[in-house]
Amino acid sequence: SSRVLWTLAVTQLKQRDKAMSFLVFGGATGWIGQQLVALLKEQGKEVHVATARLENRSDIEKDIDTFKPKYVLNAAGVTGRPNVDWCEDHKIETIRANVIGTLNLVDVCYTRGLNVTNFATGCIFHYDDEHTIGGKTFTEEDSANFTGSFYSLTKGLVEGLLKNYPNCMTLRVRMPISDDLSPRNFITKISRYERVVNIPNSMTVLHDLLPVALVMTEKGLTGIYNFTNPGAISHNEILDLYKEYIDPAFTYKNFSVEEQAKILKAGRSNNELDTDKIVAAVPECRIPHIKEAMVGVFQRMAKNLGVDHKSAAAASS
Hints:
The protein contains 13 helices and eight strands. The mean pLDDT is about 90. The protein is of the alpha/beta class and about 325 residues long.
């Protein structure tokens, strides 16, 4: 009889886990989506990878009705390759994925009583007379003020529309950073540029924040959250750490935003986002200040790459 009870308990746990399952859009090919799938598996959660393209509403419905998830995560969309300049020449594709697609998914989930955690962007703001470098930061109440790139324009428009859906949590990601040298990693990008601007920015260290997104999702939170580490860090500060931890021979040059504008098709967003709301929403999670977080990134990266930090530091000094 104890064996029967044990089998029953295991079955009930499996059913409970199935009822608590996650469905990840962008989980098959997306950079952040794949990391979310890996993290969920690591946590022992039941996770499904969506097959639908977001512009095909009937395919979204099919995925949701097939997998019957409790939680839906959206990390699908286009940012452009190799960068957002791509969107300037592919406006229809950008609208289809980032506007129609995202609205499709959130709307389908709304009709089924499901919440969606939407990995969006904080690159919809830029410093202005009211929000100066080191001064007042942008809060979740602020509306987009940066339309210098078509990518950011579409993202700002969608955020404004999604505010009307009570089932959506919008996470404003910025300059996402991973512990490897993936071409999508902000560190990799700026380390390969001939010249960089040197402006403090809010950034999202994925190691710190992806687990927080899952906690927020399971809590059933909705609305907009600035999804970054507290504080801001400049390009030069990051590249100095890169030189210290990874490559002592590395050098870089700066140029102004005006000079940068001459070589780019689209403008780039620079801003600092306020993080009081996200910190208060998850008191059980520690989200380190970006300057502390970035040292952690390079320590893990050096380890992942098999670089001896002490000898790198000695060589760069």
